Amino acid sequence: MDDVFQEEEKHWQNLKHELFLKEQELDAEWGRKLAETKQFQQYLVDYKGEIDPHEMFTNSRISQQQQVAEAVSSNQLSKVKKIQKNPYFSRIDFQFSGDSESERIYIGRFSYTNSNGELLIYDWRAPISSMFYDYDFGPAAYQAPNGEVSGEIIGKRQIKIVDGEIDYVLESQHTIFDDTLQRTLSHKDSQHMSTIINTIQQEQNAIIRNTKDKSLILQGVAGSGKTSIALHRIAFMLYHFKDSLSSEEVMILSPNSVFSQYISQVLPELGEEPVIELTVEAFFEKLAGAVPVYSRIEESERLNDRLPHDALVSRIKRIHLSSFMTELDLFLKTIEKTAFFPEPIQIGEMNFSKAYIIQKYRAYHKHPILERFDRIAEDLLEEAKVRMPKHLPSRAQVTRRLKKCFGFRTTMQIYREFLKSAGIPAFKNLTYSDLFPIAYIRLFFEQIPDLSKIKYLVIDEMQDLALIQQLVIKQVFKCGKLLVGDFTQQIESTQTMTLQQLGDLFSEAKQLILTKSYRSTYEIMTFAKKIIHDTVIQPITRHGEDPQRIICKNKDMQSAQIISLLTKQAKQAPSVLLITRTLSEAREWYTILRNQGINLRLLDGKEATKSDEKIVISSLLIVKGLEADTVIGIDTQKEYFPGKIGDQQLFVIATRAINQLYFIERRSEDEN
């Protein structure tokens, strides 16, 4: 055992003892508060009939205060228990300018101050902690609330403590992220995304701690950590702006429920309450006030069927075109001007002419149509009240009269009329993409939903959203935004949005680009880069086995190869992900492999359930954003993935892999 390890072991044992005593103290305190609360509740029950209203009100306040105190005590105890298992991950020795000696700065998930008021562990989000990510040995500085603090880093260590025991200590003049990443990625649990606080890179740290720009667009290559950055940025903002921002005021729009479950543990691990989280599909269902017959996944399956003369597919593709928005805007402007035919309204002794009502209607042009009628009704009643203050109709009655003068009664009626005018065939069933124009029309026609309580919005997989979806989001959210994605990972032919278009639409947002990829081995990323002819991605120098293309003549041979691989990988890899092009194919292979005795789980995107099964099978659309130690792509022959979109689909399959990648290809038409 070297001197560095022994030094850290001694320091940790001393701190561990102090934490143990603190735990006992907090546990006793929590027990007392529980007993006090229980005793008081019993008093309220025993003397319920004898307590007067004033005392009841006072007792209610006391009970609430007891519950708050109990919760605070419980949270403090929980925090100390977590610190005991994993107290810190780094130490820097920093000599402040003007001082003769350095100070040891230990950095962890949570801060810890002892009974003497000494800050023994700094929260990773604290200003002083930023130096660990931004500087090596030598001059360093950080921004404190009162200005810049400078000095010199004269020592730097990375320390891993697992379940209260030191695993390793690494000392270097540089931040040794490569070694730490090697250890982390080699033993990664892919059931859930984990925190990256001990391996945050300098360029990632700059984004996480950016407080100058209200909105950001983050274009990050596969494996660049962009989703982790987004979640850690949320945690940082909740810490930095704790007096003005709470978890209830932050919203994440994620691509699907499987992805939502995958990222669900990150914020709790960082000590923050979960934020509001919706899938993009659920959000647009709420906004449109409709539930489609065909979900996003079912719509994608329909597109992948590539059936000729499919009216539904034609409508879907039309909705995603920028020209669709131009046509829709022109149609809405037209009906705004031509669909309102007001009649003169008599209220008491006041007669309001058609011209006057139209003047009012135009004056409220910034408001939705139905909201205008409500405002006009209020104005007319206020004017009529001057002459006849009593016996006036209600505001709702006047509003109803105005509504009857408009040519459309509902949002859906307007949408169907627009499709008819655009030459798009009538339909019986809504599909996912119909939600976008319906939501857009609803914002034009009905009152805008109140989302003002949301102060920060994060959207992942931004490249998957159509122009009309982005326009709706821009209209309903006036808060700061973080838009995260990678335009080389667009996997459907309907996805035509570009980074340039997104930047033009959200011109207030600062654009940032990440080109370093940390997830996959050098060999896997080099293989993936060739698929899309990439010259931008910089893979980390972490070596592993070469990806393998396994050629099979028929499905029986494919099945035998896959079972052979799974039997081997089940013993070695912590997680295995099988990926097919479509969900119907995933279901078919799931049945085949189950019948062959393989224990695996099917992700169909409908529900996200926890499972201990390490082998998972799903479709390309559902697994976007996920990762696994070993990935097996099924039927990855190029003719099955035509064109640029096909290349990007294969690229996404390849870049889900951390350590091992297999492409199982079928080169014969004999399906057996």
Automatic annotation (TrEMBL):
The keyword Nucleotide-binding applies. SUPFAM superfamilies: P-loop containing nucleoside triphosphate hydrolases. One of its GO terms (biological process) is recombinational repair. ATP binds at residues 220-227. It comes from the Bacteria. Gene3D superfamilies: P-loop containing nucleotide triphosphate hydrolases. It comes from Enterococcus florum. This is DNA helicase. Keywords: ATP-binding, Helicase, Hydrolase, Nucleotide-binding. Pfam families: AAA_19. Residues 199-521 form the UvrD-like helicase ATP-binding domain.
